[in-house]
């Protein structure tokens, strides 16, 4: 990787083009800011420079501030490692400087990158450039004036939405909103930006300082209403996220006391947030997610992923149809095999419903949906398996059935075909035992709903070849999942880590703690639903089947509760039949079902673990710890065993 640097070239037209160079995403490292300051000051001083164009090297403007610096701050607790650029560089030198500056943005323009562009006096973009302020997803807020300048350019509601969701928009939308002054073909980007900068210098175009604008913000009372609504939404969607509330406070400061005061408060709050536990956690997640794409002896031995164009899914149930949906949405041809026309029809209909759901939620355009519909085909036998590149078996968790399927597919598929199973618990060596192709046997564990959840757990055995692992990782990336390669054990890494979660919840319920209180505390801690509602959603059959696997694999740390059996006996099966710990009615929110309480009482009577026969007294904090600490312990075991 080239060393981070900033270059400047002054043309005969009197425009200085300042370029920052730090591939692959031109992250704004400390030396980039130092270089920018130096070059900007030089351009300001030189008589032959009339205007400035700011751009990024290699077709990507910038992926934002260098996140490695956050990591260093987290290790040292030393916030002085953060560059102090918001006021001095971006406001005083750039925005209030004596020469006009135009940002020429392309590819990526995120975080601090967009903030640099906002500090310029106009922005020209190439088509489909991503523009966004994703800082909240790292536990911080935009720290270089973004909280102040973005609302002033595009209005409060849209600016708040972009910051709260951390989702980028495209330059075409940016142009409509007033964030971008013109979208031009990539090859004309610099030419147009240069001319634009000269036009500003000669007063043919307005010299706009974003921080001084007020025209898009509306009246104070309107702004208060927008902020009130935003706070209400955050309470529902991110109630434990300090950065969301802090960001709204900082925006409000600028609305009430002016942009400059907003920038000052922003810088102060930014430092506080960098040191928060939330930021430490989310920055860890950022690097950890990327580290998953580097697997020793797989991604570093010069192998190239082979193309996977056609995939067969065996079983068109909830998982199979969800996986099929993911694949066809990424232009991979899918055949779904079922055992009878009725099941097959149901599977195909589920794929169609999944795709239609995305269109209805405006996440997919109709023409792309039509293309996806055309990529899936249902079959009842193996005759179309002769040219598939991968099979993903997604039938019920039944060892003999899976073994037979693997014997069959080994016979009918081409020799390069990857033989994958979507099992969530069963040992892959057992599944592939009766084949002689164990180097091609691999786990492809998706999470329900498979077309929505990003995680793809890839399970390797000692015999799985590096090529098969690499191919599945590449498919995972193509279908926009986060593929994580793990070792083979009961429950693999994810469910193995989480089995104590349901166990502890059952343990507490049998100790007399109210199940709805437990769910509420876990939600309040930040999980989307609690353990009992999760059981309702997954169905009790799954919990009982997997529970048996864990009992035999880890007998020394199992709590056996009769509650699920009692629930099933009383005709309950969770969301499936509308009756579980909660009542489920179409179109209504799930609500607690008081008639379940005698069944829980019966379970308590049978387990008889309440001290003195009375419910234990426990604080809310202890509930969270009793449920999640065992999960942390199990995660440590998973790491310790090298899985
Ligand atoms: C003061 C400011 O307000 C504060 C900030 O700006 S905070 C930073 C805000 N920016 C962000 O959150 C963007 C983070 N980056 C991303 O979302 C994505 O990397 C991206 C959309 C830019 C590119 O995605 P993609 O092309 O898939 O590449 P991806 O694999 O993620 O990244 C490529 C490499 O660049 C690194 N990288 C990406 N953005 C980075 C950043 N802002 N800082 C440091 N490294 C970064 C990645 O770690 C990865 O490194 P690796 O190859 O060694 O693993």
Automatic annotation (TrEMBL):
Domain 3-hydroxyacyl-CoA dehydrogenase NAD binding positions: 310-488
UniProt cross-references to Pfam families, sorted A to Z: 3HCDH, 3HCDH_N, ECH_1
Biological processes, Gene Ontology terms: fatty acid beta-oxidation
GO function terms (MF aspect): (3S)-3-hydroxyacyl-CoA dehydrogenase (NAD+) activity; 3-hydroxybutyryl-CoA epimerase activity; delta(3)-delta(2)-enoyl-CoA isomerase activity; enoyl-CoA hydratase activity; NAD+ binding
Main location, first listed in the record: other
Organism lineage: Eukaryota, Viridiplantae, Streptophyta, Embryophyta, Tracheophyta
Family statement: Belongs to the enoyl-CoA hydratase/isomerase family.
Keywords, alphabetical: Fatty acid metabolism, Isomerase, Lipid metabolism, Lyase, Multifunctional enzyme, NAD, Oxidoreductase, Peroxisome
Subunit field text: Monomer.
InterPro entries for this protein: 3-OHacyl-CoA_DH_NAD-bd, 3HC_DH_C, 6-PGluconate_DH-like_C_sf, ClpP/crotonase-like_dom_sf, Enoyl-CoA_hyd/isom_CS, Enoyl-CoA_hydra/iso, NAD(P)-bd_dom_sf
Annotated Gene Ontology cellular component terms: peroxisome
SUPFAM superfamilies in the cross-refs: 6-phosphogluconate dehydrogenase C-terminal domain-like (SSF48179), ClpP/crotonase (SSF52096), NAD(P)-binding Rossmann-fold domains (SSF51735)
Pathway info: Lipid metabolism; fatty acid beta-oxidation
Domain 3-hydroxyacyl-CoA dehydrogenase C-terminal: 491-584
Name of the protein in question: 3-hydroxyacyl-CoA dehydrogenase
Catalytic activity annotation: a 4-saturated-(3S)-3-hydroxyacyl-CoA = a (3E)-enoyl-CoA + H2O; a (3E)-enoyl-CoA = a 4-saturated (2E)-enoyl-CoA; (3S)-3-hydroxybutanoyl-CoA = (3R)-3-hydroxybutanoyl-CoA; a (3Z)-enoyl-CoA = a 4-saturated (2E)-enoyl-CoA
Species assigned in the record: Solanum commersonii
């Amino acid at each position: 990787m080239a060393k981070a640097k900033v270059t400047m070239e002054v043309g005969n037209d009197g425009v200085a083009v300042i370029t920052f160079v730090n591939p692959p995403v031109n992250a704004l490292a400390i030396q980039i800011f130092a270089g920018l300051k130096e070059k900007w000051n030089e351009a300001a001083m030189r008589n032959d420079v009339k205007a400035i164009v700011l751009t990024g090297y290699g077709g990507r403007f910038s992926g934002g501030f260098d996140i490695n610096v956050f990591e260093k701050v987290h290790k040292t607790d030393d916030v002085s490692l953060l560059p102090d650029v918001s006021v001095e560089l971006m406001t005083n030198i750039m925005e209030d400087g004596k020469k006009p500056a135009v940002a020429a943005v392309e590819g990526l323009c995120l975080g601090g990158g967009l903030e640099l562009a906002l500090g310029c006096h106009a922005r020209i973009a190439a088509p489909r450039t991503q523009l966004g302020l994703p800082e909240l997803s790292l536990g911080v807020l935009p720290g270089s004036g973004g909280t102040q300048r973005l609302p002033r350019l595009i209005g409060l509601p849209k600016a708040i939405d972009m910051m709260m969701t951390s989702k980028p928009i495209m330059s075409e939308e940016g142009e409509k909103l007033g964030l971008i002054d013109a979208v031009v073909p990539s090859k004309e980007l610099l030419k147009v930006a240069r001319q634009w900068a000269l036009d500003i210098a000669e007063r043919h175009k307005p010299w706009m300082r974003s921080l001084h604008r007020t025209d898009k913000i509306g009246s104070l009372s309107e702004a208060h209403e927008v902020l009130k609504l935003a706070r209400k939404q955050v309470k529902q969607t991110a109630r434990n996220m300090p950065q969301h509330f802090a960001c709204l406070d900082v925006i409000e400061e600028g609305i009430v006391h002016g942009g400059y005061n907003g920038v000052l408060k922003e810088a102060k709050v930014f430092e506080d947030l960098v040191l928060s536990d939330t930021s430490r956690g989310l920055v860890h997640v950022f690097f950890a997610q990327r580290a998953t794409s580097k697997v020793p002896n797989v991604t570093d031995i010069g192998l190239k992923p082979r193309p996977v164009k056609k995939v067969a899914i065996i079983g068109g149930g909830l998982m199979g149809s969800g996986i099929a949906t993911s694949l066809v949405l990424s232009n991979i041809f899918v055949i779904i095999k079922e055992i009878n026309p009725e099941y097959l029809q149901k599977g195909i209909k589920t794929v169609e419903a999944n795709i239609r759901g995305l269109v209805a939620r405006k996440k997919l355009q109709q023409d792309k949906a039509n293309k996806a519909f055309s990529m899936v085909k249902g079959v009842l036998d193996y005759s179309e398996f002769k040219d598939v590149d991968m099979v993903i078996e997604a039938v019920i968790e039944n060892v003999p059935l899976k073994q037979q399927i693997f014997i069959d597919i080994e016979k009918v598929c081409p020799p390069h075909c990857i033989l994958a199973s979507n099992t969530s618990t069963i040992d892959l060596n057992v599944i592939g035992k009766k084949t002689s192709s164990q180097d091609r046997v691999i786990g492809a564990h998706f999470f329900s709903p498979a077309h929505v959840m990003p995680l793809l757990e890839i399970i390797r055995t000692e015999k799985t070849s590096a090529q098969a692992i690499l191919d599945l990782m590449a498919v995972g990336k193509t279908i926009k999942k986060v593929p994580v390669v793990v070792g083979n054990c009961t429950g693999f890494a994810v469910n193995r880590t989480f089995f104590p979660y349901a166990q502890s919840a059952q343990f507490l319920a049998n100790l007399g703690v109210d199940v709805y209180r437990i769910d509420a505390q876990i939600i309040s801690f930040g999980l989307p639903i609690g353990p009992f509602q999760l059981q309702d959603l997954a169905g009790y059959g799954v919990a009982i089947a997997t529970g048996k696997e864990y009992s035999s694999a880890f007998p020394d740390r199992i709590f056996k509760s009769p509650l699920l059996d009692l629930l099933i006996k009383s005709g309950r099966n969770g969301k499936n039949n509308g009756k579980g710990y909660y009542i489920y009615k179409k179109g209504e929110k799930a609500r607690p079902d008081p008639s379940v309480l005698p069944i829980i009482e019966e379970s308590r009577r049978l387990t008889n673990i309440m001290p003195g026969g009375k419910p234990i007294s426990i604080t809310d904090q202890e509930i969270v710890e009793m449920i999640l600490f065992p999960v942390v312990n199990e995660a440590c075991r998973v790491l310790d065993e090298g899985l």
